[in-house]
Design goal:
331 residues; alpha/beta; Aminopeptidase; Rossmann fold; 2 domains; eight-stranded mixed β-sheet; four-stranded parallel β-sheet; 12 strands; disordered C terminus; binds iron/sulfur cluster
């Protein structure tokens, strides 16, 4: 891994911390309870704590698996972003960001997060970047979703901050295994058996034949096949893939390396569409054991799911307005 190097975005510079940052972090983050309202964690509560925190950041730059940046705009610090607790077994890391309240609502969190997600996955080779926010922290949730992070699960009442209780929203950003899409001759879609009770798979097929969403970049002659997972816990995938493999071998000259196995959107992400399947890792293991290495998460996001998402955010907006009486503001 490379560790913390300077990154540039359209409007921002992400740079290593220097000890002078401590004063800003105490004044703007440590002394403003809005800044830690949804984390309950204030490492800048006093000038000494702020100084110690920044000193620890600076010491950690020797570690290639530590990532901690000050976010600078026009020469002035406006926030922080970092990634910590790299788990080599899971190949994951957790990311967190804070933006000065004067700069909320202008897309700076999204811009910094996008750059860091790209840097962690593409340049440092980390497969999964995780983040969480409290259920009422709509600004953070929106920033993560704009960057392509997916809401993986919701832990009910998992956060006790002050005298308030929040659900914990856990997000993840996954790096897709590098796959040459032009070499793919067969796209196999595994659909959630529960969802198929009320879905013909029409939207997945439209996305495939329109070469949109998860099917972007496939050549014109690419074949298409759908199969259900067979019901919980997805063990039925093994038999179906074995049958597919036999037919592939006997009737075509297509190699397994030229097959992409998609887990349909209803399997991998809620997208206000369906909950993420709790057996995704198990199903992926089955796919790999059958020798198919090209696994793609997602196929399509329906208009219905987008509508549902919009309604949710309209409701969320009403809730925000209500809270604004007490100074609640988006990130
Ligand atoms: S992703 Fe949507 S369209 Fe495709 S099978 Fe699942 S529910 Fe149906
Ligand atoms: S194993 Fe997953 S994808 Fe299959 S029916 Fe159950 S929830 Fe749906």
């Amino acid at each position: 891994m490379i560790g913390t190097i300077q990154l540039k975005t359209g409007r921002l510079i992400l740079r290593r911390h220097v000890i002078e940052d401590a004063d800003f972090l105490y004044r703007r983050f440590g002394s403003d309870e809005k800044m830690y309202e949804y984390s309950g964690w204030n490492p800048y509560a006093t000038p000494d704590m702020a100084k110690e925190t920044v000193q620890n950041f600076i010491k950690s730059y020797d570690d290639d698996a530590f990532f901690g940046w000050a976010i600078e705009k026009d020469g002035a610090i406006i926030g922080t972003i970092g990634a910590y607790d790299h788990d080599p077994q899971e190949d994951s890391i957790e990311v967190g960001t804070s933006i000065d309240r004067d700069y909320w609502g202008r897309g700076y969190a999204t811009e910094a997060l996008e750059a860091v997600l790209r840097y962690l996955t593409e340049d440092n080779g980390i497969s999964n970047v995780k983040a969480w926010c409290a259920s009422d922290n709509l600004g953070s949730a929106k920033a993560m979703e704009r960057c392509g992070m997916v809401l993986e699960d919701v832990e009910k009442d998992a956060l006790s901050i002050g005298n308030k209780q929040f659900d914990k929203y856990n997000y993840v950003y996954r790096k897709e295994k590098a796959m040459d899409r032009k070499s793919i001759k067969y796209a196999v879609v595994i659909q959630c058996d529960h969802t198929l009770n009320r879905c013909s798979g029409f939207a997945c097929s439209e996305a495939f034949f329109g070469r949109s969403a998860g099917f972007t970049g496939y050549e014109d002659g690419t074949k298409y096949l759908t199969m259900s997972c067979g019901g919980c816990c997805g063990a039925g995938v093994a038999g179906r893939l074995e049958h597919f493999e036999t037919k592939l071998r006997k009737l075509t000259d297509i190699q397994k390396s030229e097959v992409a196995v998609h887990l349909a959107t209803c399997v991998v992400t809620d997208n206000r569409h369906h909950d993420r399947c709790p057996y995704v890792d198990y199903i992926k293991e089955i796919i790999r054991k059958n020798g198919f290495e090209n696994i793609v998460e997602g196929t399509y996001q329906s208009q219905a799911s987008r509508d549902a998402y919009a309604i949710l955010h309209r409701k969320a907006f009403q809730r925000t307005c209500f809270f604004q009486k007490w100074g609640y503001t988006y990130l």
